[in-house]
Amino acid sequence: MTNSYHIPVLLNECIDGLTIRPDGVYVDVTYGGGGHSAKILEQLTTGKLVAFDQDVDVLANVPDDERLIFVQHNFKYLKNFLEYYKISQVDGVLADLGVSSHDFDEADRGFSFRFDGALDMRMNQTGTIAAADVVNTYSEAELIRIFKQYGELKNARRTAAEIVAAREAKPIETTLQLKDILEKLVPQKISSKYLAKVFQSLRIEVNGEIDVLRNLLADAYDVLKPGGRFVVMSYHSLEDRLVKNFFQKGGFDKTVEKDFYGNLATKFKIVEKLIVPDEAEIERNPRARSAKLRVAEKI
Description:
Order of helices and strands: HEHEEHEHHHHHHHEHEHE
Radius of gyration: 20 Å
Strand order of the largest sheet: 3-2-1-4-5-7-6
């Protein structure tokens, strides 16, 4: 297993949050480069690890280990595959919601505006909708919605208008095409941050990330044993807000859910305060800068 594929963020904190039992059953819903999974396996004897990843590129990093069940599918099928493998409940679930360093660094995957590549952004490379389809076929109103909702862009309307005007001349097919169209809309000093939000918005839309996360939060609660740990690491405010609200209030928004008797319908006990990388880790791995780790235990 290679360590260069992806540098795990908050690796020890994630593993500590799971409180691994040697004979326990755990799920890593975002296998990626396998860094977190490798650490889990180090602590298992008779236990099992079920790991999910829909990206075919990760197969080169999957070890031959009888304790590991690897599922090459999106974690939205969590319950289906646990049932298939006759696993009724698990001791812990880990979700690292970030895009792997490998995907960002592969130009032809289209996740980064640092390289010239096809405007793709599909985490599942057999998926039918790529980022190029979004920018070339979505209406201006749909594009505004995406940039407002998923990028929280203040200039969402102008961003959408520029894309629509540019695609009338010729299709927008590459990352650098899109970058050239948009970077003139903001001052150079904030250009990278702005483009990151644009690309984030498109990636979330292409992969349906918010809906998939909502499903994961609910499904993980169902499959965890009482006392089981749920460890979630997010990289932008939309994800973190969903995780925080679900852990603290039992729902996905600021509204507090209550049961028939007026008690909070909280599904989890918070066992760790919000964890973020320290300066030393950020210096080693700049992509860790926006990471937020939350750990909760099923009540």
